[in-house]
Amino acid sequence: MMTPSDVKATLSFSDGSPSMELPLYKGSVGPDVIDIRKLYGQTGKFTYDPGFLSTASCNSTITYIDGDKGELLYRGYPIEQLAQNCDFLEVCHLLIYGDLPNQEERVKFVKNITYHTMVNEQMQFFLRGFRRDAHPMAVMTGLVGALSAFYHDSTDVHNPQHREIAAHRLIAKMPTLVAMSYKYGVGQPFIYPKNSLSYTGNFMRMMFATPCEDYEPNEVLVRAMDRIFILHADHEQNASTSTVRLCGSSGTNPFAAIAAGVACLWGPAHGGANEAALQMLEDIQRNGGVEKIGEFIKQVKDKNSSVKLMGFGHRVYKNYDPRAKLMRETCHEVLNALGLHDDPLFKLAMALEKIALEDDYFVSRKLYPNVDFYSGIVQRAIGIPVSLFTAIFALARTVGWIAQLNEMIGDPEYKIGRPRQLYVGAAPRQVRPIGER
Ligand code: SDX
């Protein structure tokens, strides 16, 4: 709910152009916003904010982040409480419908998701078009977009029933598609969903079972994977969510809009950071381990090196990412459960974190570990290959993308997103005949 503030902003110009008053709005918590929707119409001027560091693109009721406090709420619930007390499908219900399910709602929602986990048999032929060593995010970008070819009965985003069935299908099928992209890469047969298993237990079985023997998911690893899904489910207007909103604002179908989010998440500055963070740790380990951290940190500080401490820093969190704390706890649990508490990479990560948190270069820039710093170590311990880390992130973030897309489309005031620019190119000029160019 946007509440008009008593405070107004006055914009005046030193060249005597007419000043204007801009209304402010208050949210339920967090920074107020200055409503500039009439600015261009009244002044003929645009605002300028590449990277959107000071821009609120929408109003939303889904996720709130306080970067200074290191706070993350899904529909008002602190992420710590959700991670401790709920499973991923309960969080999906929360994000999609606005509240945690009661027992009856939970049973109904789990059934709806469970009975949509299979994909059309034709989907396997899309996979067969890829090389076996294709990056899973290249495969997932293709597969998610391809889903729109199979559900002509639910592509009208303006129809709430279509939005709901598309949401169920996407949440349900992402684990199947991610597991298929993994199996295709390792040359093993695809494993079909098994409805008697939990959402995450079913994912682990599709990933690691083979037709040759029975497979029982390890409940400690299932719980860890489920928590990874919860921690990655939504995160306000990040790059991939903004991509989904902008793509969906044209009225395209939900599958195409989510495919755009998958493509954006792949980048190493965003969802690709967990893969990059683990590769960074493996490189340091290969080049001497803890003793070599000092040399690595020197490279990071050297502006000419373009080396970044992957898994550190965040556009919003200028304090510790609350998800990183929970991920580090999960690391301890999983490594202890697997008897890997002496895992050299985990020890290296904790040593690197300790050094970075005491080094003024990072402290002065408020660079703290983010969700990606520890998630790679947990996934590696569970047996997930590094190249699949971002696909797992996409699996988890699909529910957040859908909730944000549906919130936008469900707002009667929404418009197609169409930003403007500051043009600094050539002034109008005449085309000359080629002989005179
Ligand atoms: C995710 O937005 C979200 O919510 C994303 C996400 C989600 O859930 O959707 O939280 C998921 O994407 C987490 C972020 C994962 N990315 C990484 O871990 C990659 C490494 N981090 C950086 O690329 C960077 O911190 C960003 C992209 C995350 C944020 O960059 P900003 O906000 O644009 O900050 P910046 O690049 O302007 O950096 C400010 C300063 C610069 O130094 P100076 O020019 O001031 O001297 O900090 C430095 C940067 O060089 N810096 C780093 C650094 N991150 C920023 N220096 C070394 N290592 C880093 N990781």
Describe this structure in words.
The protein is mostly helical. It is 49% helix and 6% strand. It contains 18 helices and six strands. It has helices spanning 39-43, 79-85, 88-97, 103-114, 123-127, 136-147, 160-186, 199-208, 219-231, 239-248, 254-265, 273-286, 293-301, 322-337, 344-358, 360-364, 371-382, 389-409, and strands spanning 3-11, 20-26, 33-34, 63-66, 71-74, 77-78. The strands form two sheets. It has a three-stranded antiparallel beta sheet. Strands 4-5-6 form a three-stranded antiparallel beta sheet. A hairpin with a 6-residue loop joins strand 2 (20-26) and strand 3 (33-34). The radius of gyration is 24 Å and the shape is globular. The chain starts with a strand and ends in a 28-residue tail after the last helix. Residues 235, 238, 269-271, 273, 300, 308-316, 365, 367, 370-372 line the site of s-citryldethia Coenzyme A (SDX). S-citryldethia Coenzyme A (SDX) binds at residues 235, 238, 269-271, 273, 300, 308-316, 365, 367, 370-372.
Name some characteristics of this structure.
49% helix, three-stranded antiparallel beta sheet, 437 residues
Multimerization state: single chain
- Strand runs, count: 6
**What is the overall silhouette?**
globular
Indicate the mean pLDDT.
Answer: 94
% residues in beta strands? 5-15%
Q: Ranges with pLDDT <50 over ≥5 residues?
A: none
The helix-strand sequence is EEEHEEEHHHHHHHHHHHHHHHHH
Radius of gyration: 24 Å
SSE class: mainly alpha
Largest sheet: 3 strands, antiparallel
Strand order of the largest sheet: 1-2-3
What is the rounded distance between the termini?
Answer: 59 Å
Helix content: 40-55%
Ions, cofactors and other bound molecules: s-citryldethia Coenzyme A
Total number of helical segments?
A: 18
